């Protein structure tokens, strides 16, 4: 577990620096209403992951956004 703590910190720092994966970028665009959800779903290589993220469910999380 301790060996992976550094990885987690790097991920957090990367997100703060503006780095994100494609799915996160699509979620942000849909939530800000720059693109429609259907466009995002057609554009992603991971439609199921995107659907879950748009519902507020992230991989490894056991709670919904806003809950």
> Count the strands?
0
Mean pLDDT metric: 81
Radius of gyration: 14 Å
Structural class computed from helices and strand pairing: mainly alpha
Work out the helix count: 4
- Name the shape in a single word: elongated
Number of domains: 1
Q: Helix amount, in percent?
A: 55-70%
What distance separates the N and C termini? 28 Å
Can you walk through the features of this model?
The chain contains 4 helices and no strands. It has 67 residues and is an all-alpha fold. It has one domain.
What's the layout of helices and strands?
Elements: H1 2-16, H2 22-31, H3 37-43, H4 47-54
Please outline what is shown here.
This protein has one domain (2-54). It has four helices and no strands. The protein has helices at 2-16, 22-31, 37-43, 47-54.
List keywords for this structure.
disordered C terminus; 60% helix; elongated; mainly alpha; 67 residues
